[in-house]
Amino acid sequence: MKALYPKTLYSACDLSSLGFETSDDLKELEEIAGQDRALEALRFGVGIRHGGYNLFVMGPSGMGKSSATRQYLEQQAAGKKSPDDWCYVNNFENPQKPKLLRLPAGMGKDLRKDIHELVEDLLSNMPSAFESDEYRISTEEIETEVEEKREEALQALSEESKTHAVSLVRTPHGFSFQPIKNGEVVTPDDYLKFPDEEREKVEEIVGVLQEKLEHIIRQFHQWKRESKHKIRELNREVARLVVSMIAAEVTRK
Questions:
Q1: What pTM, to 2 d.p., does this model score?
Q2: pLDDT above 70 as % of the chain
Q3: CB under 8 Å to 36, separation ≥6 — which residues?
Q4: In 75, 89, 111, 161, which residue has its Cα 20 to 30 A from 21's Cα atom?
């Protein structure tokens, strides 16, 4: 075994032969030293101008793979036209299949910013539209129309009942029919004193009137459903108006 002396472990370098003062004076390497095959593969992959091809860069960590790849791609892209932006937006008819917008380069970020601002404007303006006097008056007109139709139908039934000596009486639980005698509503006790024949006649008349009352009640529920539908349509129209006004600039852009 041969011994090593300190002077044999050191090799002097003539700094004047390097041609630079510090490493700051050196031009940055554009490629990874000693990776000619990898760089050739990178050039080949980037040069393929067809869909369905991808680059997969692998190797030990710390080798500068990502930096070198990004640097090369940036160099290649510098002299070319920026590609269009592709933006996925919601498809309200089929949320599982978003729609795709193709926009000039850079406009995708503008669209995202404009949409965020549009939503903020809607959140502040939409409630005001539904609290306006115009909206309140419109909903009251729809609801009043239903009540008026109901009252007209009940009034007509009440008038018809009187022609048969029967009164339509409103109770806390709904409506009832009671016989009239000498212009006064007959009490239950007095009604029991009616002759059987007369009571049968009253019950027959009340049976017919009751069917008409039930028909009116069914109609009323139908009118209520129709009024709710009208209010929903009104809500859509109000919302559509607010959205169209706020979105006009974004739509134009």
A1: 0.54
A2: 98
A3: none
A4: 75
